[in-house]
Amino acid sequence: MAQTHDAPDGGIRGRFRAQVRSEVKQAALRQLAEGGPQALSINAIGKELGVSGPALYRYFASRDDLLTELVVDAYHDLATALAAATRRARRLSPPKRFRAFAGAYRDWANAEPHRYRLLFTAPLPGYDAQSDRLVTASREAMIVLLEVLTDLEPENSKRDVNPLDDQLDRWSRSRDLADIPPSLALRAIITWSRLHGLVSLEIEGNFASMGLDPELLFDAEVTAILSPQT
Amino acid sequence: MAQTHDAPDGGIRGRFRAQVRSEVKQAALRQLAEGGPQALSINAIGKELGVSGPALYRYFASRDDLLTELVVDAYHDLATALAAATRRARRLSPPKRFRAFAGAYRDWANAEPHRYRLLFTAPLPGYDAQSDRLVTASREAMIVLLEVLTDLEPENSKRDVNPLDDQLDRWSRSRDLADIPPSLALRAIITWSRLHGLVSLEIEGNFASMGLDPELLFDAEVTAILSPQT
DNA sequence: TCCCTGTTGTTAGATGCTCTAACGAGAGCT
DNA sequence: AGCTCTCGTTAGAGCATCTAACAACAGGGA
Fold first, then answer.
1. Which residues of B touch A217 (CB under 8 A)?
2. In whole angstroms, how far apart are CA A125 and each of A11, A56, B19, B95?
3. Which of A5, A37, A106, B56 has its CA 20 to 30 A from that of A189?
4. Chain A residues touching B164 at Cβ < 8 A
């Protein structure tokens, strides 16, 4: 066998392996935070860990492999943050719970903009977003959003059969999101898109350079989302 | 004088200079289209133009300088496309004119996703979005959007004095966008954000990996934008 | 307990990149 | 017609990813 790169076997060997992998990822995140994805250097990580460059290739197949790992972790962390915020607001009214969800989304992106960028931007060369690992990783976050939106409009079964319905239905089924009416799925995707639009512009500094307070803009948009026309 | 890097003086020298700069940028766009920003290599461009690597440093101060140039060009091209589409739809009703605007926005992003990414993502290391050149470059596109929205709701002077109004006012004044009511400015920014949200997710392949037709999602969002609740 | 084997880390090197420096050669401008 | 400025060249420093070959060591079965 040439190299494994994963699969800890529970033994002492595997434990050590997981530990090193974790330390590498932490160092990688530090480097990512200052200087973006292109500042992430295998050599520099090795130096930071007191080890020589090529040693890390025992743990990650390539630089891109390491980045992909970070993406998966980021998805998971984001989903965890969203679930925690939603859970904290579980006694509040559905609109306020949605505000909590949206706020947590924005807060997470602002706290770690480099990781947020990693999620929704494609810094990798032959990066394909339909990779199974990434699809699975993003599922958690979508589930939280769907829950919050379900509470928001319990029985909004507006039935304008458009061609999207079939696609939305197939999508929710393929993700094991049982029993999602197409209208809710559409609402979730549009909501996600709107939150992402504002947040992504904010973390790139577009609003700061306009002299606008991103939080106020965000509040305005969340209010708009909460009071749709139909 | 060490190096100039720009300022063609109209003479033969300057003409040649501009020509070479243009050819370099074209080659850069080709490389950008396949492999993203990190595939853009000064050396490779030189090879493509039948010239040795460091020669290009006579024309661009650095790789980042070249990228910034591409960003400015892209802003201008996008604004031109938006203005052209709007102008083509000038005899249609304001809602249809807005649809034309939004469609042109999406079409441009899909036609050249790498350039769109260049605009709203920060692939550069010490990249600052408040650079004067970029602010100026984005102004054109915003003007077109403001025009379309103005026709859409001629006298929607809803006056809920919120703290954003001051900021929005200062922003429009600082950009020489004379006489923009804050409510319109807010509407423009939110609209931009929504379009960007969908388009950016689309060009990263997020909808394709969901089995959803981006155009239908886009139509749904444009319809929602056209019929606000208030 | 001892040895085999797989894992780990090391250096050397191939290849590519950006960018600087020093040096010719030629064409524009006066 | 000659001065000068600009252009393109090579050489090289420095850093990157990643492969290859080699040394050392510790885990686990005999």
1. 164, 186, 189-190, 193
2. 36, 21, 30, 39
3. A37
4. 212-213, 216-217, 220
Distances (CA, A) of A142 to A172, A205, B164: 10, 26, 31
- CA A12 to CA A14: how far, in whole Å? 5
CA/C1' separation A17–C1 (Å): 28
Q: What type of residue sits at position B61? A: A
Contact list in A for residue B200 (CB cut-off 8 A) is 120, 196-197, 200
Q: Provide the 8-state DSSP code for B190.
A: H
A37-43 long-range CB contacts below 8 Å, 24 or more apart?
Answer: A37/A67, A37/A114, A37/A117, A37/A118, A37/A123, A38/A123, A38/B38, A38/B123, A38/B125, A39/B125, A40/A66, A40/A67, A42/A66
Cβ atoms B103, B81 nearer than 8 A:
no
| Rounded Cα gap, residues B72 and B146, in angstroms | 20
B219: CB partners within 8 A, 6+ apart:
none
* 3-class DSSP string for A22-60: HHHHHHHHHHHHCCCHHHCCHHHHHHHCCCCHHHHHHCC
Cα–Cα distances in Å, from B33 out to A125, B38, B118?
A: 11, 11, 11
Number of inter-chain CB pairs under 8 A, A vs B = 152
DSSP at B176? T
pLDDT in tens, A128-172: 544 677 778 888 999 999 999 999 876 555 556 577 888 998 888
Residue A141 near residue A78, CB atoms below 8 Å: yes
Residues engaging strand C (CB under 7 angstroms) = A 1, 4, 13, 16-17, 20, 46, 51-55, 58-59; B 9, 11-13, 40-44, 53-54, 57, 62-64
Distance CA B225, CA A134 (A): 31
Q: Which residues numbered 62-121 in B keep a CB inside 8 Å of some CB on A?
A: 117, 120-121
Query: Which of the pair, A178 or B37, is modelled with greater confidence?
Result: B37
Angle, vertex CA A129, rays to CA B194 and CA A189, nearest 5 = 35
Residue B50 contacts A, CB cutoff 8 Å: no
Q: Which residue has the tokens 């609003």?
A: A207
Structure tokens at B145: 């959007």
Q: pTM for the complete prediction? A: 0.91
CB-based burial label for B155 (10 Å; 0-12, 13-18, 19+): exposed
State pLDDT tens for residues A197-228.
999 999 988 898 888 999 999 999 999 999 87
| Distance separating alpha carbons of residues B206 and A130, to the nearest angstrom | 8
End-to-end CA distance of chain A: 61
pLDDT of residue B145: 96
